[in-house]
């Protein structure tokens, strides 16, 4: 992935978009700091559909026998 300064990206935006659609995203920098990434809409859509780890766990087809029994011993003894 190539890096391009913001001022250069402004002047060559059309070419950058064409490159992104062709599968070559670009990192846009400002004052040497990475600020944004230009990628195709198709790639953004693919990446935005990745489920979170929590959603993957909730969707897992588990039955009660798949998990070990719960340990119910107290973590520590308290005296009052």
TrEMBL record:
Residues 60-80 are annotated as: Disordered. It comes from the Bacteria. Gene3D superfamilies: YefM-like domain. InterPro entries: Antitoxin_Phd/YefM (IPR006442), YefM-like_sf (IPR036165). It holds the Pfam family PhdYeFM_antitox. Antitoxin component of a type II toxin-antitoxin (TA) system. Belongs to the phD/YefM antitoxin family. This is Antitoxin.
């Amino acid at each position: 992935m190539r890096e391009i300064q913001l001022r250069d990206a402004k002047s060559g935006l059309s070419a950058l978009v064409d490159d992104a659609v062709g599968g070559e995203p670009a990192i846009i920098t400002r004052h040497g700091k990475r600020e944004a990434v230009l990628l195709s809409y198709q790639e953004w859509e693919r990446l935005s559909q990745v489920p979170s780890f929590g959603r993957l766990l909730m969707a897992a087809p588990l039955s009660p026998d798949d998990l070990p029994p719960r340990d119910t011993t107290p973590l520590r003894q308290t005296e009052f």
